[in-house]
Specification:
Layout lengths: L2 E2 L3 H12 L8 H20 L4 E2 L2 H32 L1 H16 L2
Parallel strand pairs: 1-2
Helix pairs in contact: 1-2, 1-3, 2-3
Length: 106
Amino acid sequence: MKKQLNTTFIYVLSIFGLLCCCFGGLGFLVSGPAYLIANKKLKSAIENPDNYEGNINAVNTAKTIALIILIINVLYFAYTLYIFFTVGYDEIHGRWREAMEALENI
């Protein structure tokens, strides 16, 4: 029996990783495994094409999307760390508090 090359799980992890990018770039914790899963599936499908059923190009596309989202998350995480270590937590918290007070006054 042939295994199915299903990319749905990879896409779900990638999109969830993109949504988690808003939380300081922590989406790399989700998009990294998505990339690794896609890479593993693609390698095994290329090595044994008779054992798999489906489109290899779809797995390659899912791998590319997961890689792009992983790069975005890593860059944003590095930016967050840079801001955190140069500005400091107290300054970031103060700016956040000012923004929340401005929203309450609207």
